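Sequence design from tokenized structure. All designs in this work follow the same two-part layout: the structure record, then the generated sequence. An example of the structure record is given first.
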């Protein structure tokens, strides 16, 4: 099983608000084969996301594979509502960093 860095197989890795109480993380893969192999790996789980973002598994609201865009969409509850006192990223655009260091196993 190959292990590759997510940054080497994704075209785009980004984050954004999904309303004032949620954050969406998007990973757009470079090609269909890598998208399919990553999905098949089962690597992206609520447990993984919860650990990366220091939230409970219940706060991982969804992990969705969107084949037409070769994308993975992950939605989590924001720790603070967007724009509230103590919020450090009103637009949620700087929250994808924990994904950048991941190495993922890719089955054949």
């Amino acid at each position: 099983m190959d292990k590759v860095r997510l940054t080497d197989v994704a075209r785009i890795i980004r984050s954004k608000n999904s309303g004032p109480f949620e954050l969406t993380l998007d990973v757009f893969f470079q090609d269909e084969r890598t998208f399919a192999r990553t999905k098949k790996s089962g690597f992206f789980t609520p447990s993984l996301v919860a650990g990366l973002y220091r939230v409970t598994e219940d706060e991982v609201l969804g992990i969705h594979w969107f084949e037409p865009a070769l994308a993975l969409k992950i939605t989590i509850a924001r720790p603070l509502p967007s724009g509230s006192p103590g919020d450090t990223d009103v637009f949620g655009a700087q929250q994808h960093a924990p994904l950048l260091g991941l190495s993922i196993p890719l089955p054949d």
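DSSP finds four helices and six strands in the chain. We note this feature because it recurs in several other targets discussed in the main text.
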